[in-house]
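Hi there,

I know you've been waiting on this one. I reran it after we fixed the sequence typo, so this is the corrected version. Both the input and the resulting structure follow.
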Amino acid sequence: MNNDYQRIAEAISFINTNIQQQPSLEDIATAINLSPFHFKRLFSRWAGVTPKKYLQILTVERAKQILSESKPLLEVSDTIGLSSSSRLHDHFVQLEAMTPGQYKAGGTGISIQYAIAPSPFGNVFIATTPRGICKLSFLIDNNEGQQIADLKRTWPGAKIQRQTTEIISIAQGILSGDKAIKGPLSLHVTGTNFQIAVWRALLQIDPGYIYSYGQIATAVGRPKASRAVGTAIGSNPIAFLIPCHRVLQQSGKIGGYLWGETRKHAIHAWETARYNQ
């Protein structure tokens, strides 16, 4: 699966660079050294749609259309409440913040297990406490050591150990959109009150929809704080599940992403192909 994503990432990078020319199937296949037949087959298996359909989704105009169709998050907030759980892939995701006492103790007495798991967007580092997932990051340059170091900085007193079977099973179900997973899924994070509010707002965005930084700022009661929202989104410790990839610039441009803009393009278009055609 990871090798498939590397090919797909090369294709997406080529498409993004040449978007104005609307490259043909043959052009893209040649750029990544595959025959058109094999490229189309690989791409359709990975994305669930043809390369042509995917190319349409990646355009700014398509993104702006989805932005305009998105339901105001304040409407969702009035119904659900920012402090409650929200829907994601037909699961319920519960976000639990570390208490001040836990933060002061640095995770002392807590056991954290982690593993490396495959996903449609490259390998991920995933770690869990007894209360839920505390970290999920896409690996860049196989930086497992860096991920463990980051985990130790956030939870310096915790006992950290590698565990594979159960965690990999959880990760594969989440990242494939497997509806057979039994909820609720729990997330156990640490952050400021503002960061937690932003992350809760992100959890209210349904798959296949996108919002602007300004819309998120309004949803958390800080309509002039788009830049601060961007900073909070950039501090998101749990990729994909806290869906910061569903936030784009108001112009429809993709914007930055902690794990790379190509991957953000891939996740956004992959979800849109499945949930918002």
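Quick highlight: The longest helix spans residues 2-17.

Best,
R. S.
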